[in-house]
């Protein structure tokens, strides 16, 4: 994936993008079946996304419903592949002045877009006549997700597909060995050792770690009681006692054989559903994929075991709006963005995909509560809102994690010590952030 800092270069060599002059006193309103535009002319909203499989099917069906309810609005869904593909195509579109109306975007992408005046501040829309109805207020969106979309005094997006990391575990393996789901790092390490053995004629490894571990290292640092990065100062902080504790914990399990990386399997869900590993930490958005492949295997999820403290990263993309769109397109797009996260829709999305409801009212609704009671794997993510945090949103964050992964791999696969790895990761991470400034 190209570094996000490439956008800086693109903007230096390209002609300054002409941002739409957004009318902060926008008076567009929505009737029961249409969005008011100039002379009610048809308007098309182009939405670039990276959803696939069950997730894309839900999006297509929800979009069809929205179009049926808004006679003069068409939403054109454009699948741009994976997130790496989407990022690169958005950069190319910015250079060519052909950005879509809206797109899925991680917050660190939005930081870069904002610095170059590419995206629309939604604050006037949120506070205006076409803002959220009282029973679906903006404040009803969970704070962790509002924080992810707030940049200074601007609101640059609305949350969409949001997930948390959870611990997937094989219930039969645990029950047969007299174990309960681990709630602390010590319990996790003990369970991993106990379950690393031959079970039912199969060689089992107790714990599995996903490839690309650098993307979730902030989770381990936070749980160890440390700080990952100072976002205000753009300073790397994880080269600390807590950072060393986190890396040593991971390294010890890998070295004693009670844990393994996903490796050539690509994702740990494969070894898990085959019964090759007893547990692994993964995204709650993977629930649908595990359910599809697990067959009759008894499995579930549990909240992340804590170290010094509980800490759960909330990840996933938001939907942001580009400023090269017309005012009519923006008004229609805002209605669509709100529609995707109505209490009813965000619950249905969560039930279908394993992502999480983004509204507090949805999380507390009888529909969602009864669903997670009947579908145990969905409970863990829902339990972690109280101690959830968002990832670093600085320009260069992806480049930072890529650089960190190169150094981390030396510990995971080449026997570098945790102390050596921590120092080199910290240096490379700071260089990547500094380069993107």
Rounded average pLDDT: 90
| Category from helices, strands and their pairing | alpha/beta
- What is the CATH-assigned architecture of the largest domain? 3-Layer(aba) Sandwich
Under CATH, the topology of the largest domain can be stated as D-Maltodextrin-Binding Protein, domain 2
Under CATH at level 1, the class of the largest domain stands as: Alpha Beta
Distance between the termini: 19 Å
Major sheet attributes: 11 strands, mixed
CATH homologous superfamily name of the largest domain?
Periplasmic binding protein-like II
Number of helices: 19
Tell how many strands the DSSP assignment holds.
Answer: 15
Shape, per Cα inertia axes: globular
- Write down the Rg: 22 Å
Count of structural domains = 2
Helical content class? 40-55%
In terms of DSSP E residues, the strand content is 15-25%
Low-confidence sequence ranges = 1-34
Describe the structure in brief:
Its main location: other. The protein has 437 residues and is an alpha/beta fold.
Write the layout of secondary structure elements.
Layout: H1 6-13, E1 43-49, H2 53-69, E2 73-79, H3 83-96, E3 102-105, H4 107-115, H5 123-127, H6 143-149, E4 150-151, E5 154-155, E6 158-170, H7 171-176, H8 185-194, E7 197-199, E8 202-209, H9 217-223, E9 229-230, E10 235-236, H10 241-255, E11 259-261, H11 269-274, E12 277-283, H12 287-293, E13 299-302, E14 312-321, H13 327-340, H14 343-353, H15 360-363, H16 366-374, H17 379-382, E15 388-390, H18 397-414, H19 418-436
């Amino acid at each position: 994936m190209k570094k996000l800092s490439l956008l800086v270069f693109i903007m230096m060599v390209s002609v300054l993008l002409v941002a739409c002059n957004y009318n902060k006193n926008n008076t567009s309103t929505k009737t029961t079946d249409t969005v008011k535009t100039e002379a009610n002319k048809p308007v098309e909203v182009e939405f670039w996304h990276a959803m696939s499989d069950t997730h894309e099917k839900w999006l297509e069906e929800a979009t069809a419903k929205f179009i049926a309810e808004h006679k003069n609005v068409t939403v054109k869904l454009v699948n741009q592949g994976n997130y790496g593909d989407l990022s690169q195509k958005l950069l190319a579109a910015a250079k060519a002045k052909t950005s879509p109306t809206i797109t899925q975007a991680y917050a660190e992408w939005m930081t870069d877009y904002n610095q170059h005046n590419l995206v629309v501040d939604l604050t006037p829309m949120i506070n205006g006549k076409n803002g959220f109805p009282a029973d679906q207020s903006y404040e009803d969106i969970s704070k962790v997700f509002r924080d992810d979309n707030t940049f200074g005094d601007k609101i640059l997006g609305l949350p969409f597909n949001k997930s948390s990391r959870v611990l997937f575990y094989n219930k039969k393996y645990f029950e047969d060995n007299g174990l309960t789901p681990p709630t602390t790092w010590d319990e996790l390490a003990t369970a991993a050792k106990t379950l690393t053995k031959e079970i039912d004629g199969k060689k089992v490894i107790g714990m599995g770690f996903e490839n690309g571990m650098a993307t979730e290292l902030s989770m381990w640092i936070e749980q160890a009681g440390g700080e990952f990065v100072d976002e205000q100062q753009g300073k790397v902080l994880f080269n600390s006692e807590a950072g060393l504790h986190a890396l040593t914990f991971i390294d010890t399990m890998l070295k004693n054989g009670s844990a393994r990386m996903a490796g050539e399997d690509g994702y740990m869900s494969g070894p898990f559903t085959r019964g090759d590993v007893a547990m692994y930490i993964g995204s709650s958005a993977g629930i649908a994929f595990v359910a599809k492949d697990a067959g009759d295997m008894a499995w579930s999820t549990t909240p992340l075991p804590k170290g010094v403290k509980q800490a759960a990263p909330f990840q996933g993309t938001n939907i942001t709006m580009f400023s090269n769109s017309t005012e009519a397109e923006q008004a229609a797009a805002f209605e669509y963005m709100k529609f995707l996260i109505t209490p009813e829709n965000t619950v249905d999305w969560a039930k279908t995909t394993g992502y999480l409801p983004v509204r507090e009212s949805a999380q507390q609704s009888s529909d969602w509560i009864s669903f997670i009671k009947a579908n145990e794997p969905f409970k863990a993510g829902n339990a972690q809102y109280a101690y959830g945090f968002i990832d670093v949103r600085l320009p260069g964050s992806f480049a930072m994690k890529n650089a960190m992964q190169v150094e981390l791999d030396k510990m995971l696969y080449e026997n570098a010590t945790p102390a050596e790895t921590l120092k080199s990761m910290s240096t490379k991470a700071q260089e990547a952030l500094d380069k993107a400034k």
